[in-house]
């Protein structure tokens, strides 16, 4: 850079700025590796971007809302423009939210963008997580990033909960009261936890201010840190890709960050923001004026949390009312059990990658994604989990199911009680068999070619359908997946007749391995020999 | 878990390597044929098509500018409280709708323009980039381990146990200061959850009229809500008090009351139950006057008000507490004491 | 397992699966659809009108008995009052069509004159709440905000914040209040039809009822504003969640597919 000719030439302004920055930040070194970084193209790889962008939108709109929101529970009498509440007592939090919605120009829009973006953020995280799950993108070296993502999802749930509780309206207040009941149900320390969270007896005058700092500072701060770490790891690991011609475990095929992905990813931010802005223009969300201010002695039917808390609501609704009274103490199992199961449902999916890694014993890096059909057991587990989640969501909305489908609320509750156990099992079996069917079809396709739809009559009168052989690229794609062999424990006695110790854990592992990769759980992919026998024979079958 | 628990032969050979060596490529029908050759788009070979794309992109960016101007115009033009009818959405705020739509279009068009530009005019040649293993090579690892060992030795951390132990002690204790500071987040529970504002002689005040309730006011099949006399809506602690004291009054033909204590604690079939659900504290009051069932709208716990408010469905763990009522000298309904048990959700010390 | 798997490609497999699915859905519905007997309300009274009696013996007597004393199919109408008749027949709930968890509102089959005659006859059987006059249920000048507060204390637990209705036990439900006549809302509070409790004037004076009607008409009338846009049924987070998933995330995934898809290649020349 510092040759004689270079120093004589007057560098353009942009270059001089870059030089200045490079001298202090070393940006040329960073840019060298990253500016033309390759990203593979697939729509499902953009799900994470939906989350990233909705998070940014939430922060932008959230900052705007803090300019007008008063996180205070001091009581005021409403004298604003909304007639059905004039003269009604409410907290300042509620009154200032009314002010944002009815008196600040564009305030309602920003509130609605904030809330819609929050719903999309968490929905996006769930879908993104499922994409990573079903394609096996969580395998080495990405387990840590999977956990970061999972933590982001968990924190997102609680940020959402503390957020929609802030306006202190009748619906969210009911949720905050629910939270009190949950804390009270914790054995030994429950009533202390409730007193400490609410600054005394419910509802007290503190929780809005406390939830506010948790919602705008504590949780988003942690999330921002995790998000940055998540993105750094995505960059560092380079993106995964689906199998295909020219795509191996040792390369990544796609288009460069500058300019294609700069334009596509940058443009996608505006697309996401645009779609959410239109949603906020068209559809109302959380119309707190219709719900009224919170009063602990008032309630409305259809009291539900936002959708992402719906499955925990389902758990709470279907639980039988177990309560044990002994030695002057009460164990509130009817509330405590569902609240313990709630994180466990989520943790179950979070630890899955480590269980699978243990069963396969595979310590290699994986950068080629699985097609879900080629790993029937994992796909089955994932679908079973989603089934459980959905059934619990149904439970969480049992009252609306009852009114909209003219069913009995008690019957729905019983349905959920039974099917939260039966449903996932059925879903697992069904999915696994479906995957095997698809694997069989792939195998047929590779060996016999594609059905062309053309019927030919042979000289002796037989009708056959002509099968067209696949192109080499397709042949490769359909056979590129790996197939594990089930783990064998081997003989329990070694060659010297000494008994070998096999720990129960190892037996379990062998059993699981058989379940994953035994003959019942995967269809052998065609070998070159099989292919040759068939193709060298009589053309087709 | 030891690393050789799974013998290597269970692992499949990695994709695109091993047996599919280039020597065998000719025999292996499944071998990787390599990246397909790049095929041009219309825009790559036809300059007119490329210019069409350029115009579309420019149009989108221009549309965005117009939408932003429309946004500013809407902000200025529409009063904040103007309601307009927009088919098929309904009667909506003109400002919210116009601001949202214009902002949406302004943002979306920037995105759509950028993506269209990238898709049609920027190069779409797919190129491979090599991956490098995440793990460090053996040499680096050995260097790091050696450095660490040297550093640890120089610190004397392992040798000078006194320093190490006291440091751990100090580090473990100092967070206690922070924990202590949390003590004043709230008072101790003591007996706060066990008592309400109700007491002997407190008159039942109708929440609709703010007048005392008289037995003859309460008809069979009707539903009324009451609070204790002396509790004012503008009182400092109204919310906290009503959260425990809220009361639900129904009248049941005495002959239909199955529970003996309920009949005794009632006044001529007028029964007063806590409105706060014993599950997690929602105000429960979905009263069915024919079945005498009362349902909680939050989690569907169902209580039978004609049978001591016992739980007949749902997740609540115990019956609603009943308030013992009578009539005072002036003919008004009054409480004959506080609830006999804590109202609302159960807790560890409830017993 | 393999056998079954092989047969799933049979031409009839899809039909079998479809039939199984239909049978399962139908069976589940039959199992969960609420059953039970309908009970109409109880309360009555006033002037004897022969016309009303005639109408009664044709349309009502088969269930409620020839003298309104009630049978196993319908409750006694002695003492239910004219307001109850006006509500039940005026909203089309009576005559009931079929037994169910609850008698829903239907097309009204009697004229208002006939309803008045029926009401007069039933009122003559025993004293009960009288059909309100227009002045009673006229909500002009009522306090909407007070009505809102009363509504949230007394009504929202079953009928939802803005009167969209909600579920009760075993298939019963609180109906939506959208488009319900002020008179019928007033009468319902007065008499407590079916499983709804009553809110008599002694505990909820006329003025309170007018306030409540004014509130309902403000937030759930034909011209009620939904400032933020589509009301999504006024049902809260469940419908918002569905909308967010289907139209929000759905649209974004569609956009993502467009962003990531490769542009069409030029045809090989």
TrEMBL record, chain A:
Gene3D superfamilies: Cytochrome Bc1 Complex, Chain C
Documented EC number(s): 7.1.1.8
InterPro entries, per database record: Cyt_b/b6_N, Cytb/b6-like_sf, Di-haem_cyt_TM
PROSITE patterns noted in UniProt: CYTB_NTER
SUPFAM superfamilies linked: Transmembrane di-heme cytochromes (SSF81342)
Membrane-protein topology: Multi-pass membrane protein
Gene Ontology molecular function, alphabetical: metal ion binding; oxidoreductase activity; quinol-cytochrome-c reductase activity
Enzyme class: translocase
Any one annotated GO CC term: plasma membrane
Ranges annotated as spanning the membrane: 43-69, 113-134, 146-166, 178-199, 211-236, 257-285, 331-355, 375-394, 414-431
Required cofactor(s): heme
Name listed for the protein in its UniProt record: Cytochrome bc1 complex cytochrome b subunit
Organism, as annotated: Streptomyces beijiangensis
Automatic annotation (TrEMBL), chain B:
GO molecular function ontology, one term from the record: 2 iron, 2 sulfur cluster binding
Annotated Gene Ontology cellular component terms: plasma membrane
Record key words, sorted: 2Fe-2S, Cell membrane, Disulfide bond, Electron transport, Iron, Iron-sulfur, Membrane, Metal-binding, Oxidoreductase, Respiratory chain, Transmembrane, Transmembrane helix, Transport
Membrane topology, record value: Multi-pass membrane protein
Region (Disordered): 1-41
Transmembrane region(s): 56-77, 97-118, 162-182
Keyword Protease belongs to the record: no
Pfam family, one: Rieske
Residue intervals of the Rieske domain: 239-334
Domain of life: Bacteria
Location in the cell: Cell membrane
PROSITE patterns named among the record's database cross-references: RIESKE
Keyword Disulfide bond tagged: yes
Biased composition (Basic and acidic residues): 17-27
Broad class of the protein's primary localization: membrane
Function summary: Iron-sulfur subunit of the cytochrome bc1 complex, an essential component of the respiratory electron transport chain required for ATP synthesis. The bc1 complex catalyzes the oxidation of menaquinol and the reduction of cytochrome c in the respiratory chain. The bc1 complex operates through a Q-cycle mechanism that couples electron transfer to generation of the proton gradient that drives ATP synthesis.
Similarity-based family: Belongs to the Rieske iron-sulfur protein family.
Subunit structure: The cytochrome bc1 complex is composed of a cytochrome b (QcrB), the Rieske iron-sulfur protein (QcrA) and a diheme cytochrome c (QcrC) subunit.
Name by which UniProt lists this protein: Cytochrome bc1 complex Rieske iron-sulfur subunit
Biological source species: Streptomyces beijiangensis
UniProtKB/TrEMBL annotation, chain C:
GO molecular function list: heme binding; iron ion binding; quinol-cytochrome-c reductase activity
Assembly and interaction partners: The cytochrome bc1 complex is composed of a cytochrome b (QcrB), the Rieske iron-sulfur protein (QcrA) and a diheme cytochrome c (QcrC) subunit.
Class in the EC hierarchy, top level: translocase
Membrane-spanning ranges: 242-261
Lineage: Bacteria, Bacillati, Actinomycetota, Actinomycetes, Kitasatosporales
EC number(s) stated in the UniProt entry for this protein: 7.1.1.8
Localisation per UniProt entry: Cell membrane
Keyword Electron transport on entry: yes
Domain of life the protein comes from: Bacteria
Listed InterPro entries: bc1_cytC-su (IPR009152), Cyt_c-like_dom (IPR009056), Cyt_c-like_dom_sf (IPR036909), Cytochrome_c_Oxidase_Subunit (IPR050597), TAT_signal (IPR006311)
Membrane topology note: Multi-pass membrane protein
Keyword Translocase annotated: yes
Record PTM: Binds 2 heme c groups covalently per subunit.
Annotated ranges, domain Cytochrome c: 47-126, 142-263
Major subcellular site: membrane
Gene Ontology CC: one annotated term: plasma membrane
Catalysed reactions, as listed in the record: a quinol + 2 Fe(III)-[cytochrome c](out) = a quinone + 2 Fe(II)-[cytochrome c](out) + 2 H(+)(out)
Signal sequence coordinates: 1-30
Protein residues bound to heme c 2: 155, 158-159
Residue positions binding heme c 1: 60, 63-64
Keyword line: Cell membrane, Electron transport, Heme, Iron, Membrane, Metal-binding, Repeat, Respiratory chain, Signal, Translocase, Transmembrane, Transmembrane helix, Transport
Protein name stated in the entry: Cytochrome bc1 complex cytochrome c subunit
């Amino acid at each position: 850079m510092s040759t004689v000719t270079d120093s004589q030439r007057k560098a353009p302004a942009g270059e001089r700025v870059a030089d200045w920055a490079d001298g202090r930040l070393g940006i040329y070194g960073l840019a060298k590796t990253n500016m033309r970084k390759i990203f593979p193209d697939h729509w499902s790889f953009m799900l994470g971007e939906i989350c990233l962008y909705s998070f940014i939108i939430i922060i932008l709109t959230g900052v705007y809302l803090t300019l007008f929101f008063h996180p205070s529970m001091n009581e005021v009498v409403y004298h604003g423009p909304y007639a059905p509440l004039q003269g009604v007592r409410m907290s300042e939090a509620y009154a200032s939210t009314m002010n944002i919605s009815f008196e600040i120009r564009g305030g309602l829009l920003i509130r609605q963008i904030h809330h819609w973006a929050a719903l999309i953020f968490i929905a996006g995280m769930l879908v993104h997580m499922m994409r990573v799950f079903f394609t096996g993108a969580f395998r080495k070296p990405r387990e840590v990033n999977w956990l970061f993502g999972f933590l982001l999802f968990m924190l997102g749930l609680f940020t959402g909960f503390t957020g929609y509780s802030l306006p202190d309206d009748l619906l969210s207040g009911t949720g905050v009261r629910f939270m009190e009941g949950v804390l009270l149900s914790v054995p030994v320390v429950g009533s202390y936890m409730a007193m400490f969270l609410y600054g005394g007896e419910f509802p007290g005058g503190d929780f809005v201010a406390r939830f506010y700092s948790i919602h705008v500072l504590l949780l988003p701060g942690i999330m921002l840190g995790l998000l940055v770490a998540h993105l750094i790891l995505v960059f560092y690991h380079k993106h995964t890709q689906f199998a295909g011609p020219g795509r191996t475990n040792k390369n990544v095929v796609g288009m460069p960050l500058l300019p294609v992905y700069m334009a596509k990813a940058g443009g996608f931010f505006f697309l996401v923001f645009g779609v959410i802005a239109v949603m906020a223009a068209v559809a109302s969300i959380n119309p707190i004026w219709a719900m009224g201010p919170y009063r602990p002695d008032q309630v409305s039917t259809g009291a539900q949390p936002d959708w992402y808390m719906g499955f925990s609501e389902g758990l709470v609704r279907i639980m039988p009312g177990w309560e044990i009274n002994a030695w002057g103490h009460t164990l509130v199992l009817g509330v405590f059990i569902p609240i313990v199961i709630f994180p466990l449902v989520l943790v179950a999916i979070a630890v899955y990658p480590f269980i699978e890694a243990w069963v396969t014993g595979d310590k290699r890096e994986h950068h080629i994604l699985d097609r879900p059909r080629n790993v029937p057991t994992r796909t089955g587990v994932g679908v079973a989990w989603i089934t459980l989640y959905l059934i619990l969501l149904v439970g969480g909305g049992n009252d609306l199911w009852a009114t909209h489908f003219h069913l009995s609320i008690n019957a729905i509750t019983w349905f959920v009680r039974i099917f939260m156990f039966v449903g996932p099992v059925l879903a697992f079996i069904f999915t696994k068999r479906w995957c095997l069917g698809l694997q069989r079809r792939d195998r047929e396709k590779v060996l016999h070619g594609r059905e062309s739809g053309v019927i030919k009559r042979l000289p002796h009168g037989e009708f056959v359908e002509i099968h067209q052989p696949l192109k080499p690229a397709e042949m490769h794609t359909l056979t590129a997946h790996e197939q594990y062999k089930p783990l064998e424990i081997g003989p329990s006695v070694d060659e010297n007749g000494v008994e070998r110790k096999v720990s129960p854990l190892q037996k379990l592992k062998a059993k699981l391995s058989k379940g994953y990769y035994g003959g019942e759980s995967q269809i052998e992919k065609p070998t070159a020999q099989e292919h040759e026998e068939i193709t060298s024979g009589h053309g087709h079958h | 878990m030891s690393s050789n628990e799974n013998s290597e032969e269970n692992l499949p050979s990695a994709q695109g390597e091993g047996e599919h060596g280039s020597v065998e490529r000719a025999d292996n029908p499944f071998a990787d044929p390599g990246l397909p050759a790049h095929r041009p788009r219309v825009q790559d070979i036809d300059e007119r098509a490329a210019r069409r794309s350029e115009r579309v992109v420019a149009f989108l960016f221009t549309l965005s500018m117009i939408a932003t101007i429309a946004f500013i115009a809407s902000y200025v033009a529409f009063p904040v409280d103007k309601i307009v009818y927009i088919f098929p959405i309904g009667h909506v705020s003109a400002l919210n709708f116009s601001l949202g739509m214009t902002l949406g279009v302004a943002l979306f068009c920037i995105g759509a323009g950028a993506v269209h530009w990238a898709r049609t005019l920027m190069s779409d040649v797919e190129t491979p980039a090599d991956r490098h293993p995440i793990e460090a090579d053996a040499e680096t690892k050995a260097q790091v381990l050696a450095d660490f060992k040297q550093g640890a030795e120089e610190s004397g951390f392992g040798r000078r146990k006194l320093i190490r132990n006291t440091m751990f002690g100090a580090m473990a204790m100092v967070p206690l200061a922070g924990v202590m500071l949390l003590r004043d987040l709230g008072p101790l529970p003591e007996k706060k959850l066990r008592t309400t504002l109700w007491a002997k002689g407190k008159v039942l005040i109708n929440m609709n009229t703010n007048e005392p309730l008289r037995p003859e006011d309460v008809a069979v099949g009707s539903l009324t809500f009451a609070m204790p006399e002396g509790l004012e809506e503008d009182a400092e602690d109204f919310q906290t008090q009503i959260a425990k004291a809220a009361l639900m009054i129904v009248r049941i033909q005495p002959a239909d009351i199955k529970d003996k204590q309920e009949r005794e604690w009632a006044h001529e079939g007028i029964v007063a139950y806590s409105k706060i659900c014993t599950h997690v504290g929602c105000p429960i009051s979905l009263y069915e006057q024919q079945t005498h069932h009362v349902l909680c709208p939050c989690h569907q716990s169902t209580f039978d008000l004609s049978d001591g408010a016992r739980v007949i469905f749902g997740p609540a763990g115990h019956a609603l507490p009943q308030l013992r009522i009578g009539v005072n000298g002036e003919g008004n309904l009054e409480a004959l004491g506080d609830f006999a048990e804590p109202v609302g959700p159960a807790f560890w010390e409830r017993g | 397992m393999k056998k079954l798997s092989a047969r799933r490609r049979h031409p009839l497999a899809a039909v079998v699966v479809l039939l199984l699915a239909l049978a399962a859905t139908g069976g589940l519905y039959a199992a969960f659809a609420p059953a039970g007997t309908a009970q109409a309300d109880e309360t009555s009274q006033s002037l004897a009108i022969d016309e009303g009696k005639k109408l009664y013996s044709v349309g009502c007597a088969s269930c409620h008995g020839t003298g309104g004393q009630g049978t196993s199919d319908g409750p006694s109408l002695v003492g239910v009052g004219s307001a109850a008749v006006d509500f039940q027949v005026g909203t089309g709930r009576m005559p009931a069509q079929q037994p169910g968890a609850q008698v829903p509102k239907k097309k009204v089959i009697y004229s208002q004159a006939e309803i008045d005659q029926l009401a007069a006859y039933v009122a003559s059987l025993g004293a009960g709440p009288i059909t309100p006059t227009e002045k009673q249920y006229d909500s002009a000048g009522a306090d909407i905000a007070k009505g809102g507060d009363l509504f949230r204390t007394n009504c929202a637990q079953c009928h939802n914040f803005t009167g969209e209705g909600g579920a009760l036990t075993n298939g019963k439900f609180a109906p939506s209040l959208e488009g319900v006549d002020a008179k019928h809302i007033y009468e319902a509070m007065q008499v407590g039809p079916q499983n709804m409790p009553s809110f008599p004037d002694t505990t909820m004076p006329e003025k309170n009822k007018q306030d409540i009607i004014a509130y309902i008409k403000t937030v759930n009338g034909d011209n009620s504003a939904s400032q933020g846009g589509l009301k999504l049924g006024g049902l809260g987070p469940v419908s918002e969640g569905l909308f967010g998933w289907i139209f929000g995330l759905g649209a974004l995934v569609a956009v993502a597919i467009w962003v990531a898809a490769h542009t069409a290649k030029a045809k090989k020349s």
